[in-house]
Amino acid sequence: MSSSIQTTIIRQPADGDTALTPNNKSAEVIHENRAGWLMLAPACILLVLFIGIPVALAFVLSFTNARTISPNPTRFIGLNNFTRLFSDPTFWRALLNVAIFAVVVVPVQAGLGLFLAVLINKKVRSSVFFRTVYFLPVVTSMVVVSLLWMFIYQNDGMLNQVLEKLTFHHWTAVDWLNNPQTALGAIIVMSIWQAVGQHMLIWLSGLQTISAELYEAAELDGCDAWHQFTNVTWPGLRSTRNMILITITIAALSLFTQINVMTQGGPRDSTTTVVFEAVRSGFQQQEMGYASAITLVFFLIIMAITAVQRRITHSN
Amino acid sequence: MRMNKKRSLIRLIAGIVALSGMVSLSGCGEAARQEAKMQGNEITLWTHTAGSEAELSTVEDIVADYNSSPDRKGTVKIQSFPQSSYNDSVISASTAGNLPCLVDVDQPNTPYWGWANILAPLTDKALLKRTNQLIGSAKGTWNKQIYTVGYFDATTALFARKSVLKDLGIRVATVDRPWTKAEMDDALAKMKASGHWAYPFEMGTADNKTEWYAYAYAPILQSFGGDLVNRKDYQTSQGVLNGPEAIEFANWMRSLVEHGYINSKGGSDTALDFVNKKSGLLYGGIWTMSTVQKYAKDSDDIVAMPMADFGHGSVAGGGSWTVGMTPTCNNKEAAMSYIRFSLKDKYIARMAKAGMNIPATVGAQNLIPEFEPGGSMQIFTKISSKYVKMRPETPAYNFISTEFRKTIGDIMNGSDAASGLNKAVNHIDGNIKGADGYIKK
């Protein structure tokens, strides 16, 4: 302790002085190191405990025949889990479903969020009211939302009833969640409705960082609303855009809650997802090794996609 | 510098160790209690009945009686869990090594839990003697040993209204003469043609998160002549789950959807739907009767019948909640003496009555008017005793059940029966091999 006080005392006059002796320099480094380590410690411990160790475990377990409860010792089985995984059509179907989900949800949800944000960014009296309304689904639990939408999507549910009224009884009821053609679409619509408010809010915070002077200047230059948007708003939202893109993509790829509540991956795998398959294998079927293999492959896929996205957004 | 880095790391670790030491010190009170538990012969019973007041209060009464009885070998303490999270709680407790002495077990899980060292076989002679007096389906056995015992059993049946059957010219099936497959198909066709219901038949297809598919549809498969797994040595499903009989069964299930007899995703409360006349024929559990007796104004018109005979005899589901002992229990004598104490006829009768299930002894059946000869529930006792077939007594059952559920669900939604069943058989056989045949060493 005394040495550290000493170094601080010595450090004061030496500030900005290039003639710092090597001895003093290393002492200062030690001091800074110690403080740095201490401040890093809480985050590091939590990261290692809740991310590092589980990831490492999943990595190791994916090469074993580990089961949740078993009297037999766990043993390494090489790449068996992976060969089984890649030869399982359900896994490929899950990947395809997740890809479709992401390809639709990412642009539509981001675009709709931006549209809503631009609408309520106007300083009118009702904007707070609309902000609240759009944000309500976000603060509602996904499980609750899924249950409610299950009723909406039922054969005699609200959606079919409304369509029937609108078409003067020419509409034949569709069992939205129980039809392989419509199930994934129904889940996509609901998911966008649920999460769009959150991204609207992030867009909104981005919009409010753009200085009003820029708009004034654009107006003086004779820009109409559309040109203002493309020349002022859009470039001003660059960092917000990147963040939204990455968060929506990751959230879309890890689709699970809706599936677990509404369809259990059916009918005929039309809504199954990679995370759902992992949970099914790991917890319902208690094959931890296989489930770990699924999550490991999924982890690598997400890493790759995020890396590509970063590349693209940076080269811009 | 490297030295210092190392030193600060060591300090960090020392700090963590000190911190965790403090945490464990603060847990000292709990440790002392644990110690007292061991000294004072207190044993804990985990039950899944937190959501069912009638059953929980009965368990509480039995435990209170035991704790004040002169023959007690220890004190029993109850800890109740909601049913939906119960199995997960037991499995995590087993991995963490904190199992209580006594646990509730859903009967089909008994072999799996016995294999995984969550349950120990019952050995007390007096207890085994009493166990022999119970109906067969109220016991959980594996490897020729009894692991768990139950107070009651549930079963499955068809429910219809006599007036409806009479109007449509359909015979009321009896325990001695269930419908044949032709009669069943004919009944469904007549009901569909009557136009009273969008889907005349309800068999709980929406219940695809639980074990219902395996519990209720495997009996139909067995009546067709197939099975979930080859029961000779429980090593493969080849030939029984994908044989010609199984394919016939799967095609029949799909034809129910194709003909519009059932919805492949039916109602969420099938019993209430039936009471409200949203379906004409219901395939459900014995618990349907609780809803009928509570809500149906025409409950006298409602009749329970055994499932149809598809060629190899009518088959009814069996196996309900039971209680067993863990291998880590430190006072097995007390645990088994409690189980024996709780198997008195009067307690069996109360437990069975709480959920309106079939009491596990004849003595107890005679204590409940509904189950006495001539009582309104006696039909279920007859169906169960005549047609019950237990779910395969193998640790693989848990996995088989999830595969069966998914496969039959897919087939009802239009997948090809043969390839779907072949895939399920491959998965099941792979799982059994991966667990070294589920043989206890």
TrEMBL record, chain B:
<keyword id="KW-0813">Transport</keyword>
<dbReference type="InterPro" id="IPR006059">
    <property type="entry name" value="SBP"/>
</dbReference>
<comment type="similarity">
    <text>Belongs to the bacterial solute-binding protein 1 family.</text>
</comment>
<feature type="signal peptide">
    <location>
        <begin position="1"/>
        <end position="31"/>
    </location>
</feature>
<protein>
    <submittedName>
        <fullName>Sugar-binding protein</fullName>
    </submittedName>
</protein>
<keyword id="KW-0732">Signal</keyword>
<dbReference type="Pfam" id="PF13416">
    <property type="entry name" value="SBP_bac_8"/>
</dbReference>
